[in-house]
Amino acid sequence: MLPGEPEQRTSTFSSQTETSHVFISESNSGVYGATYISDLTAVASKWEESGNKFFYEIFIKDFAAKINNKAGKNIDFESQVKFTSERRVTVGGQEGLERNFSAGDFRGRVQLVRIGQAGFCLVAIWKQSAPPAEQDAFFNSVKITG
C-alpha cells in the first residue's frame, strides 16, 4: 500500500552492472517505496567490502533525495544515517532483515528479503510526527508472490 501513485526509477550502480528498480511514493509525513534487484548476490559481495556506505547507496539514497525535495532543503542523509536496530523479520511469508535508522529529524525503516538471487527492499523515511499507523499500514501491506 503506497500512499500515492509510485514514481519508478532505474539505476545502475557505479561499481556494479546490476540494475535496481525503485518505486517511490510520498505522503505529507514521509516517503515510502520498494527497491527490486534481480541479482542481490552480486550486489551483496560489494556490500560486504564497503559496509553501510554501500547499503545507503543501494537502499536509502533515492528515498533520501525524495525527502530532501519534499522538505525543500538539503539534508545530508549519507553522513547522518545512524542505524539504531537490526532484527530478523518475516515479510510476505519470507525471512528477511529489518534495520531501523535515524537521520536528523527523520526516522526510517528498511526491510530486506532475498528470494533466490533476487532482493526486495521496502523503505520508509518519515518525520518524527508521522502517525505510527501509517508506517505500520505500509509495512504490513506487503505481499510477495512468485
List descriptors.
about 150 residues, globular, Protein Transport Mog1p, Chain A, seven-stranded antiparallel sheet, 4 helices, alpha+beta, about 40% strand, 7 strands
Report on this structure.
The protein has 146 residues and is α+β, with helices and mostly antiparallel strands. It has one domain: Protein Transport Mog1p, Chain A. The chain contains four helices and seven strands; from the N terminus they run βββαααββββα. The protein has helices spanning 40-50, 52-71, 77-80, 132-140, and strands spanning 7-12, 19-26, 30-37, 82-91, 94-103, 106-115, 118-127. Strands 1-2-3-7-6-5-4 form a seven-stranded antiparallel beta sheet, sandwiched between helices. A hairpin with a 6-residue loop joins strand 1 and strand 2. The two termini are 18 Å apart. The mean pLDDT is 75.
Give the number of domains: 1
Q: Compute the gyration radius: what is it? A: 14 Å
The amount of helix comes to 25-40%
CATH class: Alpha Beta
Poorly predicted regions are none
- End-to-end separation in angstroms reads 18 Å
- Could you say which structural class the secondary elements and strand pairing correspond to? alpha+beta
CATH topology: Protein Transport Mog1p, Chain A
Instruction: Count all strands and give the number.
Output: 7
Give a quick account of the main beta sheet: strands, pairing sense, barrel closure.
Answer: 7 strands, antiparallel
Strand numbers in spatial order across the main sheet:
1-2-3-7-6-5-4
CATH architecture: 3-Layer(aba) Sandwich
Shape: globular
On the 0 to 100 scale, the average pLDDT is 75
In oligomeric terms, what are we looking at? single chain
Number of helices: 4
Beta fraction: 35-45%
Task: Please write the string of helix (H) and strand (E) elements.
Answer: EEEHHHEEEEH
